[in-house]
């Protein structure tokens, strides 16, 4: 499967995390959504994000490496890199962007957003579960 994914991340307490070139950022407790794309093996990319045992490469890796951060849901849709930025703009209209996060290869303000809820994403994307992604549906 390939396309665009949004990780819903729960942060259980306020944390400070060194996010590579962005430096030290403070993340208040709450829900966050991270937009990414995988033009090959979306399922493996999501599985990688959920692992704590990985090299730190993307901004999101640094955040998810913290014990207080956990992926609690995933949405996906088919699309190319341009659609990833469209989803980011949609999130920006409905949530608070974390400036510069995850968007070093585009012109978006951010690809990480903080809000009380991200249920509105169901209008635009479908939930990704381990069953529908890892049981032969590609």
Sequence-ordered SSE layout with sheet pairings:
Elements: E1 3-11, E2 15-18, E3 24-27, E4 30-38, H1 42-50, H2 59-64, E5 69-77, H3 81-94, E6 96-97, E7 112-115, E8 126-127, H4 130-134
Antiparallel strand pairs: 1-4, 1-5, 2-3, 4-7, 5-8, 6-7
What is the rounded Rg?
14 Å
Unreliably modeled segments: 131-138
Percent range for β-strand residues: 25-35%
Secondary-structure-based class equals alpha+beta
Tell me the domain tally. Answer: 1
Main beta-sheet annotation: 6 strands, antiparallel
Description:
The chain has one domain (3-129). The longest helix has 14 residues, at 81-94. By secondary structure, the chain is α+β, with helices and mostly antiparallel strands. The strands form two sheets. It has a six-stranded antiparallel sheet. Strands 2-3 form a two-stranded antiparallel ribbon. The protein has four helices and eight strands. The termini are close together. 25% of the residues lie in helices and 31% in strands.
Give me some keywords for this one.
single chain, 138 residues, alpha+beta, 4 helices
Task: Summarize the entry for a quick read.
Helices cover about 25% and strands about 30% of the residues. It has about 140 residues and is α+β, with helices and mostly antiparallel strands.
């Amino acid at each position: 499967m390939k396309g665009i994914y949004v990780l819903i991340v729960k942060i259980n307490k306020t944390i400070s995390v060194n996010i590579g070139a962005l430096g030290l950022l403070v993340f208040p407790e709450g829900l966050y959504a991270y937009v990414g794309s995988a033009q090959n093996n979306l399922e493996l990319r999501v599985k990688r994000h959920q692992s704590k045992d990985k090299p730190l490469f993307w901004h999101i890796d640094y955040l998810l490496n913290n014990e207080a951060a956990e992926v609690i849901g995933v949405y996906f849709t088919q699309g190319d890199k341009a659609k990833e930025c469209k989803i980011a703009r949609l999130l920006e209209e409905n949530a608070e962007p974390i400036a510069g996060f995850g968007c070093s290869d585009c012109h978006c303000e951010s690809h990480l957003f903080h809000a009380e809820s991200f249920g509105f994403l169901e209008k635009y994307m479908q939930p990704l579960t381990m069953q529908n992604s890892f049981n032969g549906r590609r």
